[in-house]
Description:
Arc Repressor Mutant, subunit A; 2 domains; 5-stranded parallel beta sheet; 11 strands; about 40% helix
Amino acid sequence: MTHKALIIEDNADIARLVAMHLRDIDCESVIARDGAEGLRSFQRGTFDLVVLDLMLPVIDGLTLCQQLRALPGYVPILMLTAKSTELDRVLGLEVGADDYLTKPFSIPELQARIKALFRRVEALRATPPEAPAPQQLEFSDLTIDVARRRVRAAGRDITLTAKEFDLLLHFARHPGRVYTRAELLDQVWGYGHDGYEHTVNSHINRLRAKIELDPSRPRHVLTVWGVGYKFAEPSA
């Protein structure tokens, strides 16, 4: 099966190099040289992958990643950057990138990561559809409107970021199930990456601060010491 990738990279040499080696794994490419051109190309075409540079003119990579994730449909995003600080990596992953590769990178690693993203998408497509999930979830003082992506806690409208909402919804759909940080990274963020467990911790803390009456004594998102977190089961 031939795949099609959108490469959004302002360095012409790197863009051509990536496109050339994507052909080796049966993947055609379209190249865009800045963020605005990349957004237009994405909206006009149909792609199986976006290879996105972090430092782009016109629209930077982080902003563009957020804009792509706000559009209908899911396309995996591999972010490329010359920056290598942990903060940059975490920001890229938190705004919706599926994986992250720091320049200079090896061609085998680039190809391996892209193949892994393709396999993940193909596995999702092969999964039989589940029964429709409830569009509203209620737990004592907490209400989650799935369709409108709205949350109310103790009679107050709560403003959550996209990832905070995704994390809360994942918990609420599986009350009582204990998740490790690695499992949450894989199932909510869409990637498994050692060393980013603190991303989960920071999101849990912010979520509790918003939905719990007393964040120091949470009633909904609970810590399972030595393991991870779970959502409290409804009272009988």
